[in-house]
Design goal:
Blueprint lengths: L1 E6 L17 H16 L5 E5 L11 H10 L4 E8 L11 E6 L6 H18 L3 E7 L2 H4 L5 E8 L5 H5 L2 H18 L28 H15 L10
Parallel strand pairs: 1-2, 1-3, 3-6, 4-5
Antiparallel strand pairs: 4-6
Zinc ion binds next to loops.
Length: 236
Amino acid sequence: MVKIVLDAGHGLRTPGKQTPNGEKEWMFNNAVLLAAQTKLKMYETVELLRVDDPTGKTDIPLKTRTDQANAWNADVYLSFHHNANTGVWGDWGGVETYTFEGNRSSSKADKLAQLIQPRLVRAMGLRDRGVRKKNLHVLRETKMPAILIEGGFMDSRTDIHALRNPHTLKAQGEAIADAIIDYYRLKKKSNTASPSNASMTFRLVTGTFLSKEDAVVAAERLRKQHGWTVYVKEES
Ligand SMILES: [Zn+2]
């Protein structure tokens, strides 16, 4: 099992965490988290635990989140964020991936961050600000490798277009999930419904007719209506 903690950062009511137009950081973070979660759920041996409030209404204290991750014995902690510089529109921008800078810094976290950052740059199409180190609570107080992702600046005239595009945020979440999938060599769950059908055929007996002509007419109708391959087989 690979136990993955997901954290969409500050709640909706946390002051200051917004674009100059008042769009909340949590909305962007949450969209990325959900895309990553959806993708990771398609893989075997994955367990997920979300430690922020999935409604965004309450800003769960960071200590509660890291305590929960530690008690759960998580393998990795992912915290999704979007940056702000001055809070007024500017020309800065770009994406960055953080790990802890202190002496408990983890080589696993560094390796994972190196896998995430180029995928993040590609998914968002924004400037590459690189893998960085910082002394942040969720990176410091977690016993497992922890990563904090800043997926673009909310007060950047360039980045904001990517942040307002739901497809780009989805691509960001999937890109981060891809890095996890690569790192842990996760195997995709087999889809039970469709793949086997390609190599199988199914026989459908449509009816019994007293004359061959009637059978041929019925077969022709089925061919035309459904595009089926229909044979008339004589039985005595
Ligand atoms: Zn943040």
